[in-house]
Design goal:
This protein is α/β, with parallel strands linked by helices and about 100 residues long. Helices cover about 45% and strands about 20% of the residues. Strand 1 (about 1-5), helix 1 and strand 2 form a beta-alpha-beta unit. Keywords: ATP synthesis, Cell membrane, Hydrogen ion transport, Ion transport, Membrane, Transport.
Length: about 100
């Protein structure tokens, strides 16, 4: 199964360098967001896609993401960092690992 990345050009270039061959660049313009929505719908329907990585900012602009078991859709931070902040990350780690991370 393939891993696909959707996001801004800098994030996409980084993942291409890491070996992800199917990568789609989008900016945050209205037209580009609509193209991203359509591409996401297309990717979700494909049988050969196992994981879709999408930047948090793009996912936020797209709106509600499809609720599917496969492919797995993971939101990732872009070059500016997470839009959800450290507090959410701490909570996720606390739930997953069972310990609280403090600075």
């Amino acid at each position: 199964m393939k891993v696909v990345i959707m996001g801004d050009s800098d994030t996409v270039v980084g993942f291409r360098l890491a070996g992800i061959h199917e990568a789609y660049e989008f900016d945050l313009s209205e037209l580009s967001i609509e193209r991203a929505r359509n591409k996401l719908k297309e990717l979700v329907e494909r049988d050969d896609v196992g994981i879709i990585l999408i930047t948090e900012r793009l996912a936020q602009k797209i709106g509600e993401l499809p609720q599917v078991n496969l492919p797995i859709i993971l939101q990732i931070p872009d070059k500016f960092g997470s839009i959800y902040g450290e507090e959410l990350l701490r909570e996720i780690v606390r739930r997953a690992v069972g310990i609280e991370v403090k600075r």
